[in-house]
Amino acid sequence: MLETTKEAQGSLEAALRCRLAKRRVVALCGVGNEIRGDDGAGVAVINALEETGLDRGDVVIINCGDMPENFLGRLVKLQPSHVVFIDAADLGAPPGAVSIIEMDEVGAYCTSTHGLPLSFLAAYLQRETNADLFIIGIQPGNLAFGASLTTEVAATVMAMRELLAKILFWQSGSGT
């Protein structure tokens, strides 16, 4: 989980580096409803990443909003080696904490506010693309209708932007 300690941040970075080491094409898919407070964390990460220049041939950034099923055709056509969903998830942790969630663990952490559960979408994508699929889950603090991101989740959004850019862009030899 991404917390305030450098050790915790380093552990998440190491796990993501390992998981994405043999990437060919990575689809980063932000999921959530921006008008439900921290439920929009995944979309906020994607919006922040769009500013980095990371969206290029080997990294594709997709804002799925609360209807990720609408992007299945695009993902199947893309045939990525990795699909990373970024979404709010009840980790039982303080707001803003982050964890990698395997697709077979989705039911334990993610309560769907989307059209279809991510586990259903992941099963389909796994069959059609054979991609490595996982979720970067961000613990929400407030899911109230009309709320903004909490301070803790907003800080995590920016930390995830920097971490993903570092792993996928700067360390691949494409950055300066």
From TrEMBL:
Gene3D superfamilies: HybD-like. Keywords: Hydrolase, Protease. It comes from the Bacteria. SUPFAM superfamilies: HybD-like. InterPro entries: Pept_A31_hyd_mat_HycI, Pept_HybD-like_dom_sf, Peptidase_A31. This is Hydrogenase 3 maturation protease. Its EC number is 3.4.23.51. Signal peptide: none annotated. GO terms for biological process: protein processing. One of its GO terms (molecular function) is endopeptidase activity.
